[in-house]
Amino acid sequence: MLHIVNGDVVGDMLKKGIVQGDVLVWREIYSSGPIFEELSGPKERIGRAQYLEQRLGIPSAEYIANCEEQEKKLRNSARYHEIVLWFEHDLFDQSMLAYLLHWFKRHKLDRTKLSLLCIGEFPGIERFHGLGQLSPDQLKTLSGTWRTIGRQEMELGSGLWQAYASPDPVLMADLLEKKRADLEASALPFAYEAFRAHLSRLPSLRSGLGIVEQTTLEAVRAGVGTPLELFRQVTDTLHVLGMGDLEYWKFLRALAVGSHPLISIDGVIKVEDFRGIPGFLNRHVALTELGGQILDGAADRVAVQGIDEWYGGLHLQGDDVPWRWDSSAGRLAGRTF
């Protein structure tokens, strides 16, 4: 039996006798950086590795070596009688799950049974972020509760990955609306909300702020005063994204850098890597005048700051982008849509 899990905390607990068989921790952050339908090509892999090193501080050589190792284990997975996927409700996990289902759809499993455990809540936990919150005893109660993955789920998961990896966000928007009922009735009931949240990360029609930047500036205006407090509040508010600290610092850094910053961080003039700034987590954060104007919709963040960011397979660059998110209508808005 092979258990594929979403993080080392969960993987380490499962290895202590909670389940039988082998455990493979799938280490990736598909919610950040350039995404392609096929990620194992040298050009795609190197491009992704360079982005993750520059923006998140993940050493590219370490990233590439890890990818090659986990894919080797995946190619050998058909020798197990059952593969169980352990995932959660948020975009971090749902994008990972979509990738794996896309992979399994294209590779013969022969007699191997594919199963899925995917939850969005747990009794007694008021704000559920993920499986890593659970104790070993709580994880034990989930053992054996997984559902069998059939052809329908693999088709849906593969379709989600292909739409997510596409440079055309209309594919994802259309798929979510056309397949919403199928997704919610399947073993993938969290995919709709997770990938809708993905689309809401695009610059808004009103201000050019994505949902992460908008929530951050609102929190600063409300008096949340340090990076650590911001990380906790924003990731609580946007738990559907499943952001970790490395991913959130990328968003925070983009708001603080350049000649037109939207926030100021005490004592920080040039921000390259927050981890090298003494006491960074407890520095004072304030909204700049421009940040307030953009938050009020009186100026546009993309027009003022420009943008260079990946949203799945969509790469937005410059100060005039073709795609926006209309938060009031809850839909895509674009020059070609």
Give an overview in words.
The mean pLDDT is 93. The protein has 14 helices and eleven strands. The chain has helices spanning 8-18, 42-56, 60-75, 91-106, 136-140, 151-165, 170-178, 180-185, 191-200, 211-221, 227-237, 245-256, 289-295, 301-305; strands at residues 2-5, 22-25, 82-88, 113-119, 147-148, 263-265, 285-287, 307-311, 314-318, 323-326, 331-334. The strands form four sheets. It has a five-stranded mixed β-sheet with strand order 2-1-3-4-5, sandwiched between helices. The chain has a two-stranded antiparallel ribbon with strand order 6-7. The chain has a two-stranded antiparallel ribbon with strand order 8-9. By secondary structure, the protein is α/β, with parallel strands linked by helices.
What are the key terms here?
14 helices, 337 residues, two-stranded antiparallel sheet, alpha/beta, five-stranded mixed sheet, 44% helix
